[in-house]
Structures are given as C-alpha cells and as structure tokens.
C-alpha cells in the first residue's frame, strides 16, 4: 500500500523526512511536493530505482528525468563540464523553477538520461523537497507524479488518484505553489534554448543572459517527421484530461463568440460541454455547460496555479469535451499556453 504522510510545508517534521529518505535510499519511490508540481522521486544514482519510476508512471523510458539537488556541490558533481552560463543562472534562479540541461558526468545511470549525453538538473525551492534530498544524501530523480500523459499533480490527492498502490509513500505538504513545471533550459549548444517554458519566464532569462532562444515546439509548431525533438518529452501527448480539449485562441471577443457557437452545437448533439474560462468572461456563456474559471485574465499566474486542477475537475464532472479560452503568451502565460496547446486535440484560431 501507499503511505500518505501529512507535513508542514514550511517546517517539515525531521522524523517523517528521515523515514521518507530511508525509502529512497533503499531504492523505493516517494512522491513529494515542490514549488512547481508534485514529483515522484527515486535515488537518481540507482538505475534500478529509477526504472521503478517509469513502471509506476507507465512512462516511455526514452523520456529522460530531472535530477533534483539540494546544494551546488551536488549539482557540480553531475556535470563533467559546466557551461559558462550555468553559475550565474544557478545564483539568480536557484533554488527555484529552472532546470538546466548540461553535459552529464560519469556514473549517472542511463535510465535517468534516456541514453543522452546530457543531464537535466534543478534545485527545487520547496523546504520539503530540499529536506528530503539532503536526508537521502543523493540527487533525487523525479518526473511529475502523474500517470504518463495525465495533467501534472498539484496536490497530494492528485498523486493518490493516479499512483495509489504504485508508490511507497506520498509526502502531503499541501498544494504545490506555481502549479506548472519548471522551465527547461538547454545549455549544451551555442545559444541557450528554452525547451519547456515554466516557472522562470523567458523575460527573466533574457534579463540575465546575452541571448536566449525558444525552441520551435514550445510555440505549438508540430515537428515534421524527419525532425528530431531536442527534448524527448516533446514528442509525447501531455497534460490531457479524459475528455478532448478544444483550444480557442485570438482576440477575446472573437474567442467568446466562436467558443459559444461550438458549445451550442455540441450541446444540441447531446454532448456534455465543459468550458474553461476566466473570471472576466465566464458570465458571457449561456447556461447548460459546466463552466470552470482559471482566475483573472490579467493575472496569468492564477491560470498557472489552477490549470492542471481544473482539467482534472472536468474529468470528475464527466464532460465529453472541454472548450478552453487561450490567453496571452507574456510572462508565465507562455507556459500556460504551451500546456494548453499540448493538451489540445484541436486549436481554433479566431
Ligand atoms: O517542475 C518540474 O520540473 C517537475 C518537478 C517535479 O521538479 N518535474 C518535471 O519532470 O516536470 P518531467 O519528467 O515531467 O519533465 C522533465 C522534462 C521532460 O520534458 C524531459 O524530456 C526533459 O525535462 N528533459 C529531461 N532531461 C533532459 C535532457 N537531458 N535533455 C533534454 N530534455 C530533458
Ligand atoms: Mg511530466
């Protein structure tokens, strides 16, 4: 069975942390809160333990994992040759939601890197995560603690819903902070490239780095058949609730009209329709549909915090289809839109 341990997110009980760390050291699996989403952790230096993560999630084993560290020494030991931008980025954004892809050092199991010559490293900014890594004394490999393809978990209940009976323990430290995953930044090429937008924004990185690029796939462009994705995670369907998501993008009033029309059509055909709206727009939709909001349009951090939970709520409401409003791609809005586009089976440009 899966044990669930409640703990104070700001001052985690050392007794509970040490029990969880014992499980990690023995090769087991522990889900834990971070400042982004919940992670599913195993000893990152133990290939067998890491293989257990893939089994529990049902995740394709060529999709590599992030190694989570508690201090800079641990991070430095994971790279044979730290890129020149790394120290500054670590100083500015760690602990925090920035993952750096760097040349890997020897001794990192291939189950972590999916056979790549690089490794993804981050120092999480959550007291529970940091305490767990310190107590375990090893870097902790951790993907988001969801079944593969499902929305990432932002509460311990989400983790339990996906992984009960498949992991040894869950540390319940309340809701994760940001609600979306870390930014993945590749430092192994001539110019730093954002492979996945997340908690640290493009604008923040551009403020510190001489140059920074955004990978084409981030903006929702589909890769052609002969293109190799830079980040293996890019080629998989992600964040999808049970019902298909149709995303409406463009000028807000046109979005409202197109979305309303589609909702009416689908309802007329007997479909149960869910609408993902904002506080400002929710009242503009006619009754019949299940409407959930992602906070205020002018505050994309609301949407970041709420998005994954809302997608799971629509599952519980058993809607047949989810119609979602798009938002601007400024700041954290880029990460929100990246997740929505990847969850969507259809994108309507308005
Ligand atoms: O916020 C987060 O990053 C959360 C928490 C738990 O830390 N973790 C997380 O892990 O989102 P996961 O496994 O769901 O996503 C890791 C992403 C994937 O898209 C993967 O393809 C990419 O990082 N990645 C990992 N190692 C890589 C590498 N060596 N090169 C390129 N991309 C890599
Ligand atoms: Mg994930």
UniProtKB/TrEMBL annotation:
EC annotation from Swiss-Prot or TrEMBL: 2.7.7.87
InterPro entries, per the entry: DHBP_synth_RibB-like_a/b_dom, Sua5-like_dom, Sua5/YwlC_C, Sua5_C, T(6)A37_SUA5, TC-AMP_synthase_SUA5
EC category name: transferase
Gene Ontology biological process terms from the UniProt entry: regulation of translational fidelity; tRNA processing
Keyword tags: ATP-binding, Cytoplasm, Nucleotide-binding, Nucleotidyltransferase, Transferase, tRNA processing
MF terms (GO), sorted A to Z: ATP binding; double-stranded RNA binding; L-threonylcarbamoyladenylate synthase; tRNA binding
One GO cellular component term: cytoplasm
Domain of life: Bacteria
Similarity section: Belongs to the SUA5 family.
Protein name (Swiss-Prot/TrEMBL): Threonylcarbamoyl-AMP synthase
């Amino acid at each position: 069975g899966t044990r669930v341990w409640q703990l104070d997110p700001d001052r985690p009980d050392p007794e509970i942390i040490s029990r969880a760390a014992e499980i990690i050291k023995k090769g087991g699996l522990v889900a834990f809160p971070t400042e982004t989403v919940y992670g599913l952790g195993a000893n990152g230096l133990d290939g067998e333990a890491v293989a257990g993560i893939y089994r529990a999630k049902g995740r394709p084993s060529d999709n590599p994992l992030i190694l989570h560290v508690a201090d800079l020494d641990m991070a430095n030991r994971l790279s044979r040759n730290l890129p020149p931008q790394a120290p500054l980025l670590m100083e500015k954004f760690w602990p925090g939601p920035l993952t750096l892809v760097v040349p890997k050092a020897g001794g990192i199991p291939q189950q972590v890197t999916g056979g790549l010559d690089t490794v993804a490293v981050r120092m999480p900014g959550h007291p529970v995560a940091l305490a767990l890594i310190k107590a375990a004394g090893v870097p902790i490999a951790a993907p988001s603690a969801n079944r593969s393809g499902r929305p990432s978990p932002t509460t311990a209940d989400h983790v339990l819903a996906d992984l009960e009976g498949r992991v040894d323990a869950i540390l319940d430290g309340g809701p994760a902070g940001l609600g979306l995953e870390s930014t993945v930044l590749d430092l192994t090429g001539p110019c730093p490239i954002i492979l996945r937008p997340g908690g640290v924004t493009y604008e923040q990185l551009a403020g510190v780095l001489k140059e920074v690029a955004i990978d084409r796939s981030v903006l929702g462009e589909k890769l052609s058949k002969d293109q190799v994705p830079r980040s293996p995670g890019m080629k998989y369907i992600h964040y999808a609730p049970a019902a298909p998501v149709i995303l409406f993008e463009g000028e807000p009033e046109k979005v409202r009209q197109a979305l309303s029309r589609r909702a009416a059509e689908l309802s007329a055909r007997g479909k149960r329709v869910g609408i993902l709206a904002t506080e400002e727009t929710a009242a503009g939709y006619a009754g019949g549909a299940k409407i959930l909001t992602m906070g205020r349009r002018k505050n994309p951090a609301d949407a970041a915090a709420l998005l994954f939970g809302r997608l799971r709520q629509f599952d519980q409401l058993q809607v047949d289809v989810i119609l979602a409003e798009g938002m601007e791609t400024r700041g954290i809005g880029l990460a929100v839109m990246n997740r929505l586009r990847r969850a969507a089976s259809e994108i309507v440009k308005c």
